[in-house]
From TrEMBL:
Annotated protein name in UniProt: MFS transporter
Limits of the Major facilitator superfamily (MFS) profile domain: 17-471
Matching InterPro entries: MFS, MFS_dom, MFS_trans_sf
GO CC, alphabetical: plasma membrane
TM stretches of this protein: 16-42, 48-71, 83-102, 108-130, 142-164, 170-192, 204-224, 236-252, 273-297, 309-326, 338-355, 367-387, 399-424, 444-467
Biased composition, class Basic and acidic residues, residue ranges: 471-484
Membrane topology: Multi-pass membrane protein
Length: 494
């Protein structure tokens, strides 16, 4: 793989590249949160059924999560810059189609295409970032900015969605992507480092691509349908079994294929495997926190939508502020592993606090401390990115980036499905036992927070025992050093 660093070694060029990558991240995160607010208006105007309305979100999630791993590997083979720009082009065109939708089928199809475009662009973002910022301190700062963009997008999406929907109609929440998408394409052509991929011959595993994409999509489909059908339903169990079988077939295929889509050496890296495992566990707890705390405020405390959004704002500000202003400095001084473990302790304290939240909770004394402790997420996410990408060789960076983003989606989707189901089951049990509605709801949420705390304990254990500080001091990945050592000794590279 060849790079042309001469055009991009200056700080202004790299800052512009970071701006392009962050803008794409912002657009992707905004698209996830902004749609939720506009769904009632979409249902009214386009005639969606109650069940069909959920597919505005599900169609995007299944395409996005199911294609990330494939898109990441194709980025390594065809060129990460090429994949990134093509993904932004698909997403922008799909946004125009969504804004012009005249019926449910057209909008769901457009949302699926948006998911395809997001997967293509998002899968290679981290790979481009770590190769554009090879020096450890500079990379840590870039990851902090990138993580801040995600936190900012999540916090402003709901507010922006409400403003645009009320002022200009629901179509505007999709059409606003057009200028952002076009800008990222134009500036990305100029700012992102030029590169040539390894070529399809280095990993054009068609059967592996079909197996992993079908397995991930089917698994995500099973998860997003859990709330409607339940975990023990034959439909859920059947889809889950087929998904597991497909993914197992993919694993066998990768061990035997001459040119595997995902070389299994990637998972032999302690940094890659450990960071992805910690990410699934921690994001399952964090994302469920966002959903369940908002529901607690509205269903137990009687907050309205606006008051809930304002009450959650300190959490988003805390996460974003820590990721932007503190995570890079702390990682440079103490190491990403120590920062990760500290962040997990802060998140665990937040969940432990929530396990005792009363039905008549006062915001300042019972909830605001949680919003501040959740700032640990601003340490966890950048540190995980640093550790996970440190185990990637340069020619695997797109694949590892896609894998990392895939486990993000799996963690978030599974966390919401599992913890929401547990909360609902506990609530139903308490109602049957004669508890009042508010107490039953609060009891269900408290159980979910106990399980979320247990997930964070497991994440801490994995981080403490599996992960280690990246060894190179020159900014090269640990995977590259191992690869070079094998080459010098005459051993096979993979």
């Amino acid at each position: 793989m060849s790079h042309t660093p001469s055009r991009h070694t200056g700080s202004p060029a790299r800052r512009l590249a970071l701006g392009v990558l962050s803008a794409t991240m912002l657009m992707t995160v905004l698209d996830g949160s902004i749609v939720t607010v506009a769904m009632p208006a979409i249902q009214r105007d386009l005639g969606f059924s109650a069940a069909g309305l959920s597919w505005i979100v599900n169609a995007y999630l299944i395409a996005y999560g199911g294609l990330l791993l494939l898109a990441g590997r194709l980025g390594d083979l065809l060129g990460r810059k090429t994949m990134f720009l093509a993904g932004n082009a698909v997403f922008t065109a799909a946004s125009l189609l969504a804004g012009a939708a005249a019926g449910p089928a057209m909008l769901i199809a457009a949302r699926f295409l948006q998911g395809v475009g997001s997967a293509m662009a998002s899968a290679v973002v981290l790979g481009i970032l770590v190769t554009t910022f090879p020096e450890p301190g500079e990379r840590a700062r870039a990851i902090g900015v990138f993580s801040f963009t995600g936190a900012a997008g999540a916090s402003i999406g709901s507010v922006l969605g409400g403003v645009l929907t009320d002022a200009l109609g629901w179509n505007s929440i999709f059409l606003i992507n057009l200028p952002i998408g076009l800008a990222t394409i134009v500036l990305g052509v100029r700012a992102l480092p030029a590169e040539r991929g390894a070529g399809l011959a280095a990993g054009a595993d068609g059967l592996g691509a079909v197996l992993v994409t079908a397995g991930l999509m089917l698994g995500l489909y099973a998860v997003v349908q859990v709330e409607e059908y339940g975990w023990a339903a034959p439909r859920t169990l059947g889809l889950g079994a087929v998904s597991v079988a497909l993914l197992a077939g993919f694993a066998v295929r990768q061990a035997t294929a001459r040119t595997p889509l995902m070389p299994l050496r990637v998972l032999r890296s302690r940094e890659v495997a450990g960071a992805n495992a910690v990410q699934v566990l921690s994001l399952a707890a964090m994302f469920a926190f966002q959903i369940l705390v908002a529901l607690f405020m509205q269903r137990v405390l009687g907050y309205g939508a606006l008051r809930t959004g304002l009450a959650m704002l300190p959490a988003a500000v805390a996460i974003g502020g820590v990721s932007l202003f503190a995570s890079a400095r702390l990682s440079t001084r103490f190491g990403a592993r120590a920062v990760l473990l500290s962040g997990l302790v802060s998140l665990l304290a937040a969940m432990a606090w929530l396990t005792r939240v009363p039905t008549d909770a006062a915001y300042v004394t019972d909830l605001l401390p949680v919003m501040l402790l959740i700032a640990g997420g601003g340490l966890v996410l950048p540190a995980l990115t640093t550790l996970g990408m440190s185990g990637a060789r340069a020619d695997d960076a797109g694949l590892v980036s896609g894998l990392f983003t895939t486990t993000q989606q799996i963690g978030m989707a599974a966390g919401v499905a599992v913890l929401s189901t547990l909360a609902a089951g506990r609530t139903a049990h308490l109602l049957d036992a004669g508890a009042g509605e508010a107490e039953a709801l609060a009891g269900g949420y408290r159980l979910a927070f106990v399980v979320a705390a247990a997930l964070l304990v497991a994440a801490f254990a994995v981080g403490a025992t599996v992960l280690r500080r990246p060894r190179p001091a020159d900014g090269r990945s640990a995977g590259d050093e191992r690869h070079d050592a094998r080459r010098r000794s005459g051993a096979p590279a993979s």
